Amino acid sequence: MAERPEYSPGLAGVIAGESAISRIDFEANRLIVRGYDLVEITRRAVFEEVAWLLLYGELPTAAQLGGFQDRLRAERGLPPAVEELLRRTPAEAQSMAVLRSAVSALGVTDPEARDISREATLRKAERLLAKVPTILTAAHRCASGLEPVPPDPELGHAANLLYMVDGRRPQEHAVRAVDVALMLYSEHGFNASSFAARVAASTLADLHAAVTAGIAALMGPLHGGANEAAMEMMLEIGEPERARPWVLEALAQKRKIMGFGHREYKSGDSRVPAVTEEGRRVAAATGESRWQRIADAVEATMLSEKGIFPNVDFPVAWTFYTMGLPIPLYTPIFVASRVAGWAAHVVEQQESNRLIRPNHIYTGPGDRPFPRLADR
Ligand code: ACO
After folding, report:
1. What span, in angstroms and rounded, lies between the C-alpha atoms of 209 and 108?
2. I want to staple 334 with a disulfide (CB 3.0 to 4.6 A). Which of 56, 132, 224, 281 is the partner?
3. Is the CB of 261 under 6 A from ligand 1?
4. Entry pTM
5. Cβ neighbours of 353 (radius 10 Å)
């Protein structure tokens, strides 16, 4: 019999390509994007700068940033067909499924749908970045029986996203926390959703197809869906004193604690401290510290019992909840950010493309004769 070849389940540790977009510096525990420490960027930048860095490879000048922000503001509106889709979607639909369908529908209506040149892909990426916040907030409002709130051209990207949730001018601490989450969610190498986007792009499918594939891969609770699942867990825990026994019981039942663990980071996700800092600010500003205290207790238990650290989805979950954001928006907000990273991967993949098509080890039955229908 032929020797069984080696393989790595989940492709763990497998190098599946080259990329100049980001890397993890494991020694210093930093996420480096195009040569810059992403956490350091978040201290002095806004999401639009990180998005530009991802799309165009360099930090924007003041003039480039201004032009980019103007274009994003101008592109926030939705085509009637997409708005109609959101209005007709059943209220109980999963928010990520709605977003996935709406992005796919945007691809149908995009004026450059068939053009996969680098220039057209970047223009489409800008349009997607502008429209995804409008889609996710409008979808949520339609599902709640409310009219969508039109975008406010006076507001920046993060502030406008929050404004479209409830039509109220958001407070500074909330805008900052969302901006930091958007920056830190934007890119993370060959993660499942970026890889899915690259696989689609490697067939020379267009940006909207690749982003739709990315959303499909992001929505599960082992990836982006973990921020919503983590908050559901904290709601179930309810009180800080209940956190430790709740986690011990869940671990005894071999359940996974959502928002913990990471394929790459084994001694802490470099993005967690920056989001936690924002969360503490939000808790102080709102006077609501319950979720932070539950989170602290869950984290301490996971560390002492399993030695497993939280990933970025964990502090994002309780930070968003503390500021009053509805849970079904959390993973869609991840999408609003990661669109920038996916687009960068699509451009990079198509610039030096080879179809991504790995092999597998066959584990099915041996060869069998084909029986006639009447004989089965
Ligand atoms: N809770 C409890 N145990 C865990 C957790 C967790 N969250 N994460 C890992 N472990 C344990 C596993 O049970 C396993 O233990 P075992 O060896 O005794 O069986 C060991 O740690 C290794 O875990 P794997 O699932 O094999 O690690 P993998 O690298 O395949 O998975 C993953 C990484 C999917 C992120 C995993 O840690 C997990 O399921 N976490 C919860 C979901 C989550 O938070 N996902 C968000 C990821 S970050 C992001 O997408 C932005």
Report:
1. 10
2. 224
3. yes
4. 0.97
5. 13
Q: Rounded distance, CA 271 to CA 187, Å?
A: 11
Q: In what order do the strands lie in the sheet with 30-33?
A: 22-25, 30-33, 36-37
Residues in the chain: 376
Among all chains, which residue has been given the structure tokens 């529908």? 105
Q: 339 by DSSP, 3-state: which? A: helix
Q: Left, alpha or beta for 264 (phi > 0: left; psi -120 to 50: alpha)?
A: alpha
* DSSP percent split of the chain into helix, strand, coil, nearest 5: 60, 5, 35
Distance CA 214, CA 203 (A): 14
Three-state SS for 164? Answer: helix
CB 245 within 8 A of CB 298: no
**Residue whose CB lies within 8 A of the most ligand 1 atoms, among 260, 304, 333, for a mutation test:** 260
φ and ψ of 37, to 5 deg: -70, 115
| Active-site annotation holder among 262, 345, 360, 375 | 262
Residue nearest to atom 50 of ligand 1 (CA): 223
Q: Which residue has the tokens 């977003």?
A: 99
pLDDT at 4: 82
Amino acid present at 142: C
pLDDT digits (tens, 9 = 90+) for 206-251: 999 999 999 999 999 999 999 999 999 999 999 999 999 999 999 9
Distance 262 CA to ligand 1 centre (A): 6
Tell me how crowded residue 365 is: count the other CB atoms within 10 A of its CB.
6
Q: Which contacts of 52-55 are long-range, i.e. CB under 8 A and separated by 24 or more positions?
A: 54/21, 54/186, 54/187, 54/340, 54/341, 54/343, 54/344, 55/122, 55/125, 55/126, 55/340, 55/343, 55/344, 55/347
In three-state form (DSSP H/G/I as H, E/B as E, the rest C), the secondary structure along 64-89 is: HHHHHHHHHHHCCCCCHHHHHHHHHC
Strands (E), 268-341: none
Q: Which atom of ligand 1 is nearest to the CA of 191?
A: 50
Which pLDDT does position 5 carry in this prediction?
Answer: 85
State the chain's mean pLDDT as an integer. Answer: 97
Q: What is the mean pLDDT of residues 326-340?
A: 98
Phi and psi for 36 in degrees, rounded to 5? Answer: -105, 145
